[in-house]
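User: My instructor asked us to take a sequence, write out its structure as tokens, and then describe one feature of it. I'm not sure where to start. Here is the sequence I was given:
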Amino acid sequence: MLHATGYLYYSGTYGGFGITSTILKDSATLSLEGYQPMTVMLDSRKENNFVMKLISKQAKKQEKRLMSVTRDLHSKDGTRFNVGGETYSSLVENNFTDANRFPHTDFAINTDKASYSNIRRFLNMGSTVPHDAVRIEEMLNYFNLNHVAPSGEDVFHLDAKLTACPWQVTNKLLLIKASAKKLDLENVAPSNLVFLIDISGSMDMPNRLPLLKSAFKLMVDNLRAIDTVSIVVYGGSVGVWLNPTSGAEKEKIHKAIEGLEPGGATAGESGIRAAYRVAQSQYIPKGNNRVILATDGDFNVGQTSEEDLERLITQQRQLGIYLTCLGVGMGNYKDSKLEVLAKKGNGNFSYLDDEKEAEKVLVRELTQTMYAVADDALLHVRFNPSQVAEYRLLGFDNKYSAVSDTTSVLEGGELGSGHTLMAIFELVPAATAKAEALELADISLTYKKPKDSVHNEIRSKVYSTETAFDQLPAEYRLATGVALFGSLLKESKFTKQASWNDVQNIVVPVATQGDFLQQEFLLLLEKAKKIYYKGKPPTRLRSIFR
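Assistant: Let's start with the prediction itself. The structure tokens for your sequence are:
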């Protein structure tokens, strides 16, 4: 920060700044996560070099973000998978954990849904799905799981069910459901939205830029006069395509979107910086300030590694601006990079494989996608070892790089208005477990309200009273089927004895006839059965993704 003007400047990858000043000497404050802040004098007549001091020895490492963590447990390394021209973060599936030695586990919750629509793309193409593209928690986020409104001023409603495990008869399932409060769109604060749209040459395909243009026009139709829209583009060049415009001027915004044409390289880094500058210039205190990045994620100019992008977004999120990422395309789609951007930018992540998905994300689920009711949201579970011998969390798998780095941290996620999530544990009952209703687990959900530093907590206890699986409410059975579906796609070692027919037996009785998404899921299940003959991908396709 230059003290004469108060302007913020950001260095390049190697720590160099170029700052224009009208005075000979000035002072500045240097700051970087992991280092001690430093106030220095600058002399414009020479190059000024400074060395910042580490806060600790570990600060030399870039912090990795964990999705889940069992306290005091050190995980083992997992297996890496590569997928042609597409990139996915290599994941390590959660294992069974000894509840007597490690009774506490914590995991981040969010509204991300990208994995399901990306899986749908692969199956609709008649292809197997890369293991690391399957994130079970995002598959569960995709469905409407019967929202239950919190009471009074509460932000969340918590519920849990204990039942039999359909794929392992000796085990149990604990399903935890959390519903976030709904905001009335007519009464929410005004929005300052910056559409950051990739118009590089790689976007010149029907399922990329044309799809995004249709998606943004659908969204604009639902904006209010008090909302503001700006458009920043990046491709052959970076610039403001549409200056801040009221949501009432829909024709003007539509015309600007329709005029977008692809071409040039992908200057993603410069585009992100420009979008945040525009968002900051229109910042609305107590409003919904958000950058919406739409791209195939193929950043080939500027900072391109996940670590560089993570550092950049960490700096930008301090401005109090949220980030939503919309991924498109196939072949060179960079899921891993968009996931990093969304999670480090206090935001969410969706994949648009067709116009129906665009309408779902940006119209029907607009409040879930664009309006946060909670930040830094974490679920904490403490199991009673007298009732539970071992447990494993389905989904919420950590990146290979985060598990192998001892400096990794657990960061909570963003929860959107009206979102309902489901978390599922597979439990091995303790030998000492008794039939009467004893305490099985203690659950707490911690979160911060948007733009607030105060941590809030909701607590609930789960008892060992079991509900027969066929007596569970429909949404719990559907969630179980979706989780098993994801496990089979991942070829999980924990569900080798299960089959696609088992998934059908779970979901067919509870799938609602009039629910398009649930009926579509049944069709995808049929496609998966044909592709994964006897639970194994054909040899020809396995070679592509291994």
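For the description part of your assignment, you could build on this observation: The CA atoms of residues 199 and 262 lie 4 Å apart. Try explaining in your own words what that tells you about the chain.
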